[in-house]
Amino acid sequence: MRNLFSSQCRALGTSIATLALLCAAFDIQAETRVTYKSAAAGTAYYLMGVELSDAIREGTDEAIILTLEESQGSIQNVMEVSARQGNYVFTSPAVLIEQAMAGEGRLQNIRTLVFRRSEACFRCPR
Fold first, then answer.
1. Which InterPro entries is this protein grouped with (predicted)?
2. pLDDT tens sequence across 89-119
3. Report field, pTM of the whole predicted structure over 0.70
4. On the chain, which terminus has fewer CB atoms closer than 10 Å, C or N?
């Protein structure tokens, strides 16, 4: 139970840090849209995403709109990087990011596509 709580705290911290850096990176002159790929609906992570979306919208006077999408899993999140347009934020275990960058494991066929357009990757400490 302790490891689950620790994992959730790390994921929350990483999500908040990622979104805070995105907010700081944008010149907020007009509405900015960010897609946040969260967990399956009804889970604690998804509910955290709902709260995060509301907080960012309110905290930026609607200058940043965080659109929450349900995720089917971390592998799907990583694979969608190459197909996404605009600002896309997701969570994934560090090992999947490493596999995608190295072209290994289940992500071996997408090495040339994934992360070509990626601008940042924030790793959770292990």
1. TRAP_TAXI
2. 887 887 887 777 777 887 776 655 545 545 5
3. no
4. N
